[in-house]
């Protein structure tokens, strides 16, 4: 065992999570950004009668001041990008970040394009491990992972 130098960000970081699916991902990021402040946004799909169309609703947000800080928003899957955008817009009530990083495990091509269009181009970076080519008529990523929230915490009540 030895001693080594490591890099540490001089920026103040706020780690934001889209609830509920993002919680396990958030915890993993805290292992590396252990001095980050935390923010949480509840975003979910509210399906309309008959059909596959839905609205994304935000019911809860808790966040420190993000003015001039580096904002890392984590959500394991970006299907359409609309939850990510609405979560980001809710966070803007607490300031304007200096940099934005959007992190997901899997994203659809549509979501990547949507986030690139809706977020400030000059200060946004998207991190994802895989980009799947399409979403289906339910707006789920194909092949994707299924509903990450339900897989992590059980069915919605």
Q: How is the topology of this model organized?
A:
Blueprint: E1 13-19, H1 23-30, E2 37-47, E3 54-62, E4 70-74, E5 77-78, H2 82-91, E6 99-108, H3 109-118, E7 124-132, E8 134-135, E9 141-142, H4 148-153
Descriptive overview:
The protein is built from 4 helices and 9 strands. With 157 residues, the protein is an alpha/beta fold. The strands form 2 sheets. Strands 1, 2, 3, 4, 5, 6 and 7 form a 7-stranded mixed sheet that branches. Strand 8 and strand 9 form a beta hairpin. It is globular. The mean pLDDT is 86.
Radius of gyration: 16 Å
Number of strands: 9
Strand portion: 35-45%
Percent of residues in helices comes to 10-25%
The 3D shape can be described as: globular
Termini separation comes to: 49 Å
Q: Biggest β-sheet, characterized?
A: 7 strands, mixed
Element-level helix/strand string: EHEEEEHEHEEEH
Could you tell me the mean pLDDT?
A: 86
Number of helices: 4
Low-confidence stretches: none
Q: Which class of secondary structure composition applies to the elements?
A: alpha/beta
Keywords:
two-stranded antiparallel ribbon; 7-stranded mixed beta sheet; alpha/beta; 157 residues; globular
């Amino acid at each position: 065992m030895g001693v080594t130098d490591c890099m540490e960000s001089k920026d103040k970081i706020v780690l934001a999570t889209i609830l509920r699916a993002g919680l396990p991902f958030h915890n993993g990021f805290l292992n590396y950004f252990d001095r980050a402040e935390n923010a949480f946004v509840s975003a979910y799909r509210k399906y309309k009668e008959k059909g596959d169309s839905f609205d994304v609703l935000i019911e809860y947000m808790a966040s420190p001041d993000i003015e001039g800080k580096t904002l890392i928003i984590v959500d394991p899957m970006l299907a359409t990008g609309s939850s990510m955008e609405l979560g980001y817009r809710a966070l803007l009530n607490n300031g304007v970040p200096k940099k934005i990083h959007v992190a997901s495990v899997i994203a659809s091509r549509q979501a990547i394009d949507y986030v690139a269009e809706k977020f400030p181009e000059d200060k946004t970076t998207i991190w994802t491990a895989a980009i799947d080519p399409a979403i289906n008529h339910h707006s789920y990523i194909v092949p994707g992972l299924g509903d990450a929230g339900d897989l992590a915490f059980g069915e919605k009540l």
